[in-house]
Amino acid sequence: MSTPLSPQSEPPLGPLPAAPIPEVLAEDIRVPLRLTVTRGTLGLELYEPVELGPLSVTALSLSLPGLKFPVDLSGGLARFRNRRGELEHVRFELDLDGLAALLQVRTRDVLTGPDRR
Fold first, then answer.
1. CA distance 70 to 97
2. Is the pTM of this model over 0.90?
């Protein structure tokens, strides 16, 4: 049976500390995307893996439906980065050792505070 907190007791632990949020990948010119044409549909695909901590996006492809041909490609990839597409394929890889290290640090920070090691 739990005991209600009294004014003298310590407050419960708060939420996990906020991790830095990477910039939106679609806005980052370093994201290795390229335009593709498959089955008469324009699309985007990832041509190199992108690492997000212990998680890697190793494959990503999406189609851009509703475009009428001929399509003006003079703006390059930047012209289509903010267009809504349909996900065709995605593959992730998770580095379990990297995840364990990240969770160990996060758990320690929550339980002891970020400065106490």
1. 48
2. no
98 found inside a domain: yes
One-letter amino acid of 106: R
Write out the residue range of the structural domain in which residue 37 sits. Answer: 28-65+85-112
Taking the C-alpha atoms of residue 75 and residue 6, their distance in angstroms, rounded to an integer, is 63
| Collapsed DSSP state (helix, strand, coil) of residue 33 | strand
d(CA 79, CA 71): 11
CA angle 75, 56, 97 (to 5 degrees): 160
The reply to whether 47 falls in a domain is: yes
Euclidean distance between CA atoms 60 and 46, whole angstroms: 5
* 95 in any annotated domain: yes
Query: Count of domains in the chain?
Result: 1
Q: What is the pLDDT of residues 25-69, one digit of tens each?
A: 445 557 899 988 877 888 999 999 999 889 999 999 999 988 887
